[in-house]
Amino acid sequence: MSIEWVVFTYSLPSKLRSSPRVALWRRLKRLGSISLAGGTQILPARDECVEAFQWLAQEIRHAKGEALVMRVQQFEGLTDLEMIEHFRRACLDEYGELESEIAELEKGIRSKNRSADLSIMREMLVKLRRRFSEITHVDYFDSTEGTRLAARLARIEENLSPAEPQGANVPAALIAEYRDKRWVTRPHPHVDRLACAWLIRRFINPDAVIRYAAKPEPDEIAFDMDGAQFEHRGNLCTFETMLLAFSLEDPAFRSIAEIVHEIDLRDGRYLRTETAGIDLILNGWLLTGLSDAEIERNGISLFEGLYGGGTQRAAKKSRSKKLRKKQD
Questions:
Q1: Which of 45, 137, 254, 319 has its CA 20 to 30 A from that of 265?
Q2: Is the pTM of this model over 0.90?
Q3: How many domains does the chain have?
Q4: Which domain holds residue 273?
Q5: DSSP 8-state class, residue 166
Q6: How far apart are CA 316 and CA 306, in angstroms?
């Protein structure tokens, strides 16, 4: 199956100051576009890439310049695999700089003063993960360097993290036995309860009745409240215990579980760049006085978006592996 590309060409008025030209160059760099000849910019024709070029074209026209965005099925004399290799090479310098910083952090971890500098090293890891996320966002075809550095960052995180969450003795549960159940949890739902509500509606029963109250009725399945069937176990949050109980192992669940765990428990176990922003949004809903039903609706949309993004990332990795095998 061939890959479709989006091409962006432009010209700016000759009298335009240099600062807008530099700003445009920086934006193209942040998009991860490549230029093979004559300043023509190229990206894979994914929706977000096409939209980004369209916005740039509009801005250039407002500045009295000229711009053209077009889709291309194939470039003369270049195969899709050769084009992909151009994109991968474009990320090499970025990954190289990041690798140097990773090596410095690894050196610090091996040092004798590790215990004294642990908080500083964890802050460094957060910054490295943020930078890694920026690079991988435009590493459209999953360079091998990205995969290798991801493994090194994961090892660093393991070295700097507290002990593994203990989730022993999570009783197994069958989805079929819970499809017609009524559910209850505490009022003013926050991250763990919202994630569980999304899980229930998305994978157990889309029409589930979920009540917010201090005490459950006899026929209700309680979650994330005192004495609930589904609650914290060890240092696992309720969302994590439900994933284990129902044997839900979709790769996209992992990032959601780590975000929920960190916001709910704040034990420093997981360092994800998205966590602070999501925490701010959730707290904002509580502060603005939304009803429980309104918070739940917003939460369902939020976690559906996170799940969709995780699924897309997993599919991207799968496509990249197939392309690498084909190239080999």
A1: 137
A2: no
A3: 3
A4: 175-313
A5: P
A6: 15
